[in-house]
């Protein structure tokens, strides 16, 4: 438990002290591990600094950080590389991605290399996700917790004379009015997959799949109504499927006045600046079915460290690095504008000060108690892909909601039931 004690101390201290809190390494062999990531330039700079600090304490380990991968193709690139034996030792992605390798003897079991009990430093929900694999081992170690919030240019709402919406009925009403009176799109969405899951969870009492029967739970009239609701707004112009600006981000569209609001990750907060258009940025929790408080109203996700097996020395080095990275978690989550998966960090004074200064995290905090984590199961990645295609579909004039929903359900069911 000695490492665990050092780890918990690191959480509560400054980044400079936390940098010295990792273990001293158990690999005598000169070893290189490779990290592939999709982080921004600023986040990459911090990741490289953490890697450099780790190397200074582990002279026999070299950490090769490689960025620049496109988020849209990252999973397929990593998957192909792993299949061909030329992949990275460590990636940062969701547990649903790690689930694709379940039972293939590809994933590092971190608990085989650590001498502390991971369950002691996190919540039961986080631990359940980290160990949600057929062998019950820790294969996905969360590095931050994020979720969608509603970013709003309140100045546009004031100009039209409408309030920030709290329900989906109000979202349609206000978005339509804004578009009709100003020509500005009322609402855009960063992740259509998460948007779809949010609507399904809220309207289906927290159930998106039926794991007992190994099939989806969303192939019904309720979901069809929401797909048609979304399609109507896209076709009429007050909802937006993809960002208009050259940078391809809704944050850029909001900054330039092309949209009045968008639903996106709380991690997008650092990229918003409405000063050039004299805007008024406000951030609130995601809309709900009604004003009444109820379960499964919000969505959160955990990006995790996922290790792929190499030599035994590489496996140990990856586990050592991830343990060290956890010790720098307070610094990391502040850099990415996110919540921490670790209790001690959440209680840390510096993090509490950061939380109080970040409207996006305050909005996320407001919905955390009624939020859900998307389930990890065989076929979960395919479900995410199918939901994205379903809600992207209305951009095509020939889109038929019923046909598209059936296709999404059939393809997800096939993935869930594949041997």
Q: What low-confidence regions span 5 or more consecutive residues with pLDDT below 50? A: 1-25
Mean pLDDT: 91
Structural class: alpha/beta
Q: Which percent band covers the strand fraction? A: 5-15%
Helical content (DSSP H or I, runs of 4+) = 40-55%
Q: How many distinct beta strands?
A: 13
Measured between the Cα atoms of the first and last residue, the distance is 41 Å
| Shape, principal axes of CA atoms | globular
> How much is the radius of gyration in Å?
22 Å
Please tally the helical runs, counting DSSP H or I stretches of 4 or more residues: 18
Description:
- There is one protein chain.
- This protein has 419 residues and is of the alpha/beta class.
- Helices cover 45% and strands 14% of the residues.
- The strands form three sheets. Strands 1, 2, 3, 4, 12 and 13 form a six-stranded mixed sheet that branches. It has a five-stranded mixed sheet with strand order 9-6-10-5-11, with helices on both faces.
- A hairpin with a 4-residue loop joins β7 (209-210) and β8 (215-216).
- α9 (192-203) crosses α17 (380-392) and α17 packs antiparallel against α18.
- The two termini are 41 Å apart.
- The relative contact order is 0.17.
- Residues 1-25 have low confidence and may be disordered.
């Amino acid at each position: 438990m000695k490492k665990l004690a050092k780890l918990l101390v690191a959480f509560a201290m400054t980044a400079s002290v936390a940098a010295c809190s990792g273990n001293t390494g158990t690999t005598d062999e000169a070893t290189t591990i490779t990290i592939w990531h999709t982080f921004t330039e600023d986040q990459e700079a911090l990741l490289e600094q953490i890697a450099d600090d780790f190397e200074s304490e582990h002279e026999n380990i070299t950490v090769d950080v490689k960025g620049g991968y496109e988020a849209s193709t990252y999973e397929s690139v990593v998957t192909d590389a792993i299949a061909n034996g030329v992949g990275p030792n460590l990636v940062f992605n969701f547990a649903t991605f790690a689930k694709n390798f379940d039972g293939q003897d590809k994933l590092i079991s971190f608990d085989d290399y650590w001498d502390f009990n991971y369950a002691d430093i996190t919540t039961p929900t986080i631990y359940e996700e980290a160990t949600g694999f057929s062998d019950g081992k820790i294969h996905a170690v969360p590095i931050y917790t994020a979720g969608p919030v509603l970013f709003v240019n309140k100045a546009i709402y004031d100009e039209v004379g409408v309030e920030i919406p709290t329900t989906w009925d109000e979202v349609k009403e206000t978005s339509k009015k804004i578009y009709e009176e100003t020509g500005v799109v009322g609402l855009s969405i960063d992740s259509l997959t998460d948007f779809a899951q949010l609507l399904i969870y809220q309207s289906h009492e927290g159930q998106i799949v039926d794991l007992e029967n190994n099939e989806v739970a969303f192939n019904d009239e309720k979901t069809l109504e929401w797909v048609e609701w979304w399609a109507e707004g896209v076709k009429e112009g007050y909802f937006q499927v993809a960002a208009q600006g050259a940078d391809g981000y809704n944050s850029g569209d909001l900054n330039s006045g092309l949209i009045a609001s968008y639903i996106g990750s709380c991690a997008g907060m650092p990229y918003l600046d409405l000063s050039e258009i004299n805007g008024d940025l406000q951030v609130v929790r995601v809309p709900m079915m009604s004003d009444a408080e109820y379960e499964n109203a919000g969505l959160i996700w955990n990006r995790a460290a996922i290790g792929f097996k190499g030599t035994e020395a590489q496996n140990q080095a990856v586990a050592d690095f991830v343990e060290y990275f956890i010790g720098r978690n307070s610094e990391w989550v502040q850099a990415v504008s996110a919540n921490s998966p670790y209790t001690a960090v959440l209680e840390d004074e510096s993090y509490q000060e950061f939380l109080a200064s970040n409207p996006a995290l305050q909005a996320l905090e407001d919905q955390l108690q009624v939020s859900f984590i998307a389930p990890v199961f065989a076929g979960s990645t395919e479900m995410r892909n199918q939901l994205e295609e379903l809600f992207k579909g209305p951009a095509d004039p020939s889109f038929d909601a019923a046909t598209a929903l059936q296709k999404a359900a059939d393809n997800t069911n096939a993935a869930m039931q594949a041997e």
